[in-house]
Structures are given as C-alpha cells and as structure tokens.
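A note from the maintainers: we've had questions about how concatenated examples are separated. There is no special marker in the raw files; a new sequence line simply starts the next protein. For clarity in this README we add a label.
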Amino acid sequence: MSIQLPKRIWFTGVPGSRWSGIAQTLEQLPGMNISDRTAEREYTHHQYSGHKGAYFGKGMEFPADPNHVDQAWTSQDGCRLIKSHEWIDHIDDIKQMYPNDWIMLVYRPDQSSFAWWHEAGGFQIGYPNYSAYKNSSNMLSEITRTNQLILEHACINNCTWSYFTSKWINDNFKATINVDNVIPDILVTLIKS
C-alpha cells in the first residue's frame, strides 16, 4: 500500500543531473498528477524521454516563484511534482509557505552533470529553455553554485543521501517501481515536514 502523498513535491537538481528521468519514474507512483504534460512540454534526446511536463525557472515557461506554481496543471487532484533547478534558492520560503509539502533533492557532481547536459543537447534543448544561462561558462558556474546549496540544505535538514533504486522508492513511498539503471554518481534525498 502506498503512503499518503503530499499535495506537492518540490523537485530540484542541477542541469545534467539526470533528474528528469528520476522525475518521470516518480510520476509513475499511484496518486501523481501528470496533467501538466503536453506535446509542447516534451523534449526527447537519444533513446531517453528527456523532459516531460512543466519546468519552472528563469527564461522558462513559468518563473520559479513558489507563490504561483499550480497553473501548469489542468487538474488540481493528486500530488504534483514541481520541477525547477532554482527551488534550492527558495527552500526556506517553500518550507514556510507549504509546511506539509515535501522537497526532493537530486545530487550529481558538477562535471558529470555539465557533460551530460551538453550530451543531452545543451543550449539546443527544445524544452525547457536554457537561454538564461547565456553560455557554457555560466552554466558550469551555476551548476557548481546550485550543487553546493543542495549539499548545504541536505546537511542543514539532516538528510540521508541514497542511490535512486527500487528499494529507495519502496522505502520512501511504499510503492514498487522498477529502476532499471542505477547511476553510481547520482544521489537523492527527501525533506519531509
């Protein structure tokens, strides 16, 4: 039996952390709301599904504003996975404004993330729009800054990092979802109220 999901899970990781694949796996959980998915909000690269659903951030379809996040979904039922690279800059506000919601952090080292983001298309990625990062140098700087904040907030909140596995999903969500490809330099954690 699955556990009671919150209204929202604020989901964050750096570009290239492969967090979008993790998001799509979690969106298979019973009770998840995927009504933010449209053909315009999809990007595929290589054999990967890439991006699906709404992304929030600078230069993207929706700003990373914790006050205005629900408009991307056509239904308000179920749990929404709200994706932004920038939620780490708003963690304290999110915790105060939405004390019953969860926050999920994805960590992958800077260089691995930077390389995968380029492999996935870099500035040619069709959705979401990464033009606000301007150039590769700025992107790497932002990945480094964001990853540092992710680690700091995990430490402040006494989080335990784990690999993203079927067992981790079962331990945290009481659901069985097969994770085919465990990547050894990607770690995940949850901040629950």
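[label: protein 2]
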Amino acid sequence: METAARLLQLIALLHARSFWTCDELAERLEVTPRTVRRDIVRLRALDHPIETVTGRHGGYQLGRGNQVPPLVLDDREALAVVVGLRLATAGAADGLEESAVAALTKLERVLPERLRERLHDLQAATVMLGGTPAVATNPDHLVVLAQACRRRERIRFLYEARDKVKSFRHVEPLRLVYADRRWYLVAFDLDRDDWRTFRVDRASSPNPTGARCAVRDEPDAAELVRAGRTVAPFEVQATVRLSVPHAEAVRIGANHWGLAEPDGDTTLVRVGGNDPQTLARWLCVLPCSFEVLDPAEVRDAVRSHAQMLLDA
C-alpha cells in the first residue's frame, strides 16, 4: 500500500474508534508496528492531534487541537452528513442556514462521482415539508428509493403497517417527502391500484425490479403526505373555514395539522381528530375565529365546549 493511501486509512481508523493499540493498527493496516509509529509521526507533522497513551496497554487516540482536523468519511457517513446539511439549508436548523450552505459547498466539491450521483438522485426525488427528522431511517434505503424515483423504476419492498402487519408491496415510486420528523415515499401501489404513502422507516429490503413505471396522472406528493398525516388516519374529519387569509393560516401552522386552501379572504382547512370532542377542544385554541362547515357532530361539540368555557 502506498504511504499516502496508508495514512488516509490510518486517519479513518483513528476516527472510527476512540483508542487503538499499536499492534491493532499494524494488524489492520498489514504493516509492522514500527511503520505505524512512523506514520503517526508523519500525521502529527501534518497537525493531526494524535495522543500517545503510555503504559502496558498503551496506544493512540485522537486528541483535540486548535483547529478541526481533516476527516475521512466512508460513503454512508458522507451521505448522512450531506443530507443533514441539506436539511439545515432548508430551514430545519434555525440560524444555521448560511453556515450549512458554506459547509455543503465545500463537501460537495470533494465528493467522489459515485457519491455525487447518489446525492443528486436523493435531492431530485425529495420534497421538503419542514421539521427535524428524529425517526431512524436507513440511508441506504433512502438512496435506493430515491434512485427508483429518479429513474422511474418499479420497486418491491417489505412494509410493516401501523397495525404491525407485514406485506410485500410492489409500487411505482414518485417522490420522497420529508415531513415533521419522518421520511415518506409517495408511490402508486400496483396491487391496490391507487396512490399511497409509505413511511420509509417501516420499509425494508427495497429491491428495484428493472421494470419501467407506467405513464399516469401524478398527484401532488406533498399534499398526499399531508392528507395521510393530518386527515386520513382519523375517524372524524371536518371542514373548517378560518377567518384569515391563506398566508396567515399557513403562518399559524395550518399546513402542519390540516389541508389548507385559499377561499377568497378566508381559508378552508380539512382536519381530522379521534372524536368530535377532541377535535372541538383543539379548534377552540386556534388564534383566529372559525366556522365548522361539516360535520354537524363537530359543530355541536364546538358549541358545547364553547358554552363550557363561558360557564367557567
């Protein structure tokens, strides 16, 4: 192995674990302990803060220097960093957008072509709805799904539904949507003959089939995910007119808890709840006046809740 390549591999090993013995490093690099010690000296000359731990079980570990040392990332780590930076540039990390853009520019400039292509697939296939992801998602699955969306290729995967029932799904993927802590796949389900949304963290073993997707009318992927999160899961669904324009309704979060559309100087919102009483209590905390257009059960529940508040 050439010296430069060996030094890069040594840096990667030191970043991967908090402590290594000299013999362990020599074994991983397939060199002698003497060569490891020489390489450590070379890295220190390049301002890598590598500390020596003395004693019977001594070895080496990365220390803290005055500057951030060069990092060596594997493919998955690099992809995860770039995706995180992209979320920050989209406003998922308030106040960090400018710094995230600068860091992203530097990182994308040095990405190898294979990673740049995978990243572009993910970027092109993704719609951002906001929020910070907190549900663990396999980055390899994201890339496979993104490539299938970009290439218009049918894909199969094992999916675990909300009731824990697992089934194999055969779909034509359209877009990945990132919304409020989760990633969703919007796809046409061939077995159910309808457009569906799938939580990516519940999908496993995605496998492209090589078959092309059919040409069909495509829905708004973001709206389909909003409907699947805010209306479709609930037994009780109501249509409410807010007394504010659409821009103000969006500012107070209407697009996060319902499906909002402009209606002149007001806004119509489709919203869901577990029962009329719960939905009524929630509507009564809105920072604007509203009118429940349907159903009557929710309208009656709002009147009852409002009367209770007046009596109190």
